[in-house]
Design goal:
single chain; about 230 residues; alpha/beta; Rossmann fold; Transcription Termination Factor Rho, Rna-binding Domain, Chain A, Domain 1; 2 domains; 6-stranded parallel beta sheet; 9 helices; about 10% strand; globular
């Protein structure tokens, strides 16, 4: 792959395995949603917003369908939206705090201060994304971001999804840098014309694909793409 040396105008980042530990999602958020599912459906299942999500869940036993999707870690928009609502209660009362690797928030702040736009693209719902960054262990980081995207824009391994994000942001894909730990997602972003960098965090056991530039942390990304480092 030929390296691109254009300074990114927009950085689009994944969450799980990139800004945050895979274990946080797997060992904290997913079990929380599973444990709270029945009580949430009983208390709020008839609310219009929740009912609209449940209308997309097939089968006579919707709770069973949802649990099946949870067990399979299915990338189903209805499931992700519902999980976001369940997590909202936990973030609101302090039972949950969004995990970020220590290097992430300082770099995001430095890049934002330098005029680089920031956006998120994750299989988790936009609502869940905002909860994580709005109630992170590093404080409220929502003001740093100008966009949030989930699977409603398309699958993360589909080049058309990245083209759609670029179009919505009014940016040339060649001026967007996508950060992810998943090589196949990076392949799709690259196919759309974006710059790419694979995060290889030893704590998450990510394996380098060899097809993309790679960095162990966000300062490493900054050095590769001539982005500012935190003071």
């Amino acid at each position: 792959m030929t390296p691109r040396l254009v300074l990114p105008k927009l950085i689009l980042t994944d969450i799980e395995g990139t800004t945050s530990a895979i274990a946080f999602v797997k060992d904290t958020l997913f079990p929380f949603a599973q444990a709270e599912l029945d009580a949430f459906l009983a208390a709020r299942g008839t609310e219009p917003e929740v009912a609209a999500i449940l209308a997309e869940v097939p089968g006579p036993d919707q709770a069973a369908t949802l649990r099946g999707w949870m067990a399979a870690d299915a990338k189903v928009t209805a499931l992700k939206s519902l999980q976001g609502h369940i997590w909202a209660a936990g973030f609101a009362d302090g039972r949950l705090r969004g995990h970020l690797w220590p290097d992430v928030a300082p770099c995001l702040r430095a890049w934002h201060a330098a005029g680089v736009a920031l956006a998120v693209y994750s299989s988790g719902s936009v609502g869940a994304q905002k909860l994580l960054f709005g109630h992170s262990a590093e404080g409220d980081l929502l003001p740093l971001f100008s966009g949030f995207f989930d699977t409603k824009v398309g699958g993360k391994r589909d080049a058309a999804s990245y083209a759609a994000i670029a179009a919505q942001k009014g940016q040339d894909p060649a001026q967007i840098l996508f950060l992810s730990d998943v090589a196949e997602e990076l392949d799709a972003a690259d196919a759309s014309g974006m710059m790419t960098c694979q995060l290889i965090r030893p704590q998450d056991g990510t394996v380098a694909s060899g097809r993309h530039r790679r960095a162990a942390d966000f300062p490493g990304v900054a050095r590769l793409f001539n982005l500012p480092l935190p003071a």
